[in-house]
Amino acid sequence: MELTHFDTTMKLLQKVLDLRSKNQRVISSNIANAETPGYAPASMSFESQLRDVMHGPTLRPVTTRPGHLTVSPASLDEIQGSITRHPDRTGIGDENGVSVEEEMMKLSENQLLYEAAVTMLNKKLALLKYTANDGK
Questions:
Q1: Where is average pLDDT lowest: 3-7, 92-96, 113-117?
Q2: How distant is the alpha carbon of residue 48 from its chain centre?
Q3: Highest-confidence range of 14-18, 50-54, 58-62, by mean pLDDT?
Q4: Can you give the three-state secondary structure of the chain, one letter per residue?
Q5: How close are the terminal C-alpha atoms of the chain, in Å?
Q6: Taking 60 as the threshold, does the pLDDT of residue 2 lie above it?
Q7: What function is annotated for this protein (predicted)?
């Protein structure tokens, strides 16, 4: 039995950790290709999808037939994040749009947010353990 059956917060934290891990791979790939001519860096976004699932979107498209594509996810399980490529627009050099300094800042921010989610998940598990032991 998964622990996520007990609490939706744990399920949300599990999803955030998965998405932060995926974002880490995207950023690491950008840094690894900083010297690759013609490489277009990628960025991943998923925060708005999480917000829409948790609070509901301001406008939700409706699918009325089986062939219609869903535009926004209806549950946490459907959130995959979206990856966007940013081609170089500076017009100089080898058409590589990677800024190592920017990518390092994104990497640090993503790492901090990942660790914050781990801390929250650990606190939830400690509370669950405390409750299971009758408060001892």
A1: 3-7
A2: 10
A3: 14-18
A4: CCHHHCCHHHHHHHHHHHHHHHHHHHHHHHHHCCCCCCCCCEEEECHHHHHHHHHCCCCCCCCCCCCCCCCCCCCHHHCCCEEEECCCCCCCCCCCCCCHHHHHHHHHHHHHHHHHHHHHHHHHHHHHHHHHCCCC
A5: 24
A6: no
A7: Structural component of flagellum, the bacterial motility apparatus. Part of the rod structure of flagellar basal body.
Closest CA to 73 of 12, 131, 134, 126: 12
Q: Please answer whether residues 133 and 26 qualify as being in contact, where contact means their C-beta atoms are separated by less than 8 angstroms.
A: no
Please state, in angstroms and as integers, the Cα–Cα distance from residue 129 to each residue in 24, 116, 136, following that order. Answer: 30, 20, 9
The predicted pLDDT at position 40 comes to 93
pLDDT for the residue numbered 78? 85
Whole-model pTM: value is 0.79
Do the Cβ atoms of 76 and 12 come closer than 8 Å? yes
CB 124 within 8 A of CB 9: yes
34 vs 81: CA distance, rounded Å: 23
Angstrom distances, CA of residue 24 to CA of 47, 94, 97:
15, 25, 18
